[in-house]
Amino acid sequence: MKKIITAALYAMVLFICGCALSPQAKTTERANAQRKTQELRIVNWNVQTFFDAVKDGTEYSEYKSSKSNWGRDAYMARLERICEVIKKLNADVYVFEEIENEGVVYDIANALAGGAWGRENWNYACFAKIPDDALGCAVLSRYELGAMTTHSLDIRVHGKQPSMRPIIKVSVFAGEKPLTIFVNHWKSKLGGEAETEIWRDWQESVLAGILIQVNGGAAIACGDFNRDITEFAHGAESDVILLRGAHFGKTHEQAVHSPWLWKSNGIPTMYSYYYQGSGERIDHFFASGDIMVSAFAAEADGSWASDDGIPSGYAIFTGKGYSDHLPISAVVVY
């Protein structure tokens, strides 16, 4: 593997270390002819508690239990399964939530390469998590990555702050213009939706603030936001979401575009997560600046989902399944 960038954060410290076509897709070819553009296919996937075979004490209890038979064989089986999905979806860039450490990222990249490294492989990666946390986020790319920073919260006005994963900001260098990716895994609703909403609001504020720093350049925010698309503030345009930010007593709104809100091709019927008998759209792509999403899908055509499109969650006690989230894919033009 050519290069892996890692970052470690300490809690409460900010470190600066079915496919659907967009309503705009018909004009993409004309736009490409008028100005030099690049196109990338990106997949975002919460891979559901992807631990390695080494028990270091931070794993979830079921992975430490002798009843689960979790170990190298089970890990290698999961590794083979995730590589199967990566190869089938064949994206240029993968963004993963719930990866234990950079060693897992190395294992994925090496397994995909099969000992024969070349330009078609995913040779670049980055990873970040807070030390002693169980899981972090990773990016795997065919193109060089760089300019990585990580952004975390230090909020002391709502009682004890829970542990929250940092937002990763990293650039993909696939051509003349970089694409900035913001990787998110926001606070879950465990502990109560209303009780935890304040922390998702603060993570939204962090994202809104760092999106401004791109100054209109091509940017895409993605990840598991643990918030359905209907729970965000909507703008006047049909596909616009307003991310709300707060900064030293001032507030602002950052407009981004969500392909979940496209009116064509029945997009509102798709979802990325299935919980207690209903589908939810909590995994997102938010496009900002000089970029267009030309295609989007919740990927359910594979062994990682049922015939009804329900994700096949990983069950540690049987060793079956993939993840309780579907991968979502986007083709971006910038």
Instruction: Kindly report the spatial arrangement of strands forming the biggest sheet.
Output: 1-5-6-4-3-18-17-2
Tally of DSSP β-strands: 18
Proportion of residues in helical segments: 10-25%
Question: Could you tell me the strand content as a percent range?
Answer: 25-35%
Cα(first) to Cα(last) distance is 27 Å
Overall description:
The protein is of the alpha+beta class and 334 residues long. 18% of the residues lie in helices and 33% in strands. The protein has helices at 28-34, 61-64, 72-89, 102-113, 193-212; strands spanning 3-8, 19-21, 39-50, 93-99, 124-129, 136-141, 144-151, 167-173, 179-185, 219-224, 233-234, 240-247, 250-257, 273-275, 278-280, 283-288, 292-298, 328-333. The strands form four sheets. Strands 1-5-6-4-3-18-17-2 form an eight-stranded mixed β-sheet, with helices on one face. The chain has a five-stranded mixed β-sheet with strand order 7-8-9-10-16, covered by helices on one side. A three-stranded antiparallel β-sheet has the order 11-12-13. The chain is globular and about 50 Å long. It starts with a strand and ends with a strand. Residues 8-19 have low confidence and may be disordered.
